[in-house]
Amino acid sequence: MADQVQGLDAAAFRSALAQFPAGVTIVTTRSAGGTPHGFTASSFAALSLDPPLVLVCLDQGADCFPAFIAAERFVVNIVTPAHAKLAMRFATKGEDKFAHGSFESDEGGHPILPDAAAVIRCELEQAIPGGDHVILIGRVHDARVGSGKPVMWYRGDFLHLGQSVT
């Protein structure tokens, strides 16, 4: 990332964004050949209740970008504190992301975290370019709530619900 973008200090921008706590998700899919792919995203939100739509943002430079653009379906796994190391692995380029993790496959072969705080299964409705990212809009066809509490990303680290901030 450039130090200055149209007069904006990129470091100051990133620092400002770090002040906003965000949930952490691991988004997964599989290629037509059955290979699992995934990435960590904190840019995730509900878009619409009727129809049920969510959005998640994917870096166009991510290794898994081509797989998600070609995918018909994807899964949003809302992670818990127990998934912190796994979320960091999925945020790292070049890692064998599925080497360590307790993923299971749904009936379509898509990786899901059975102990996630929630699992939201989607059909890819639309992919919209947005700067260096693409906004994946998913039509939700199934949502399941787990028993764990979600974790937040704040100031470059994980924040557990109920944890005090200094």
From TrEMBL:
<feature type="domain" description="Flavin reductase like">
    <location>
        <begin position="17"/>
        <end position="160"/>
    </location>
</feature>
<keyword id="KW-0560">Oxidoreductase</keyword>
<dbReference type="InterPro" id="IPR002563">
    <property type="entry name" value="Flavin_Rdtase-like_dom"/>
</dbReference>
<dbReference type="Pfam" id="PF01613">
    <property type="entry name" value="Flavin_Reduct"/>
</dbReference>
<dbReference type="InterPro" id="IPR012349">
    <property type="entry name" value="Split_barrel_FMN-bd"/>
</dbReference>
<dbReference type="GO" id="GO:0016491">
    <property type="term" value="F:oxidoreductase activity"/>
</dbReference>
<dbReference type="InterPro" id="IPR050268">
    <property type="entry name" value="NADH-dep_flavin_reductase"/>
</dbReference>
<protein>
    <submittedName>
        <fullName>Flavin reductase family protein</fullName>
        <ecNumber>1.-.-.-</ecNumber>
    </submittedName>
</protein>
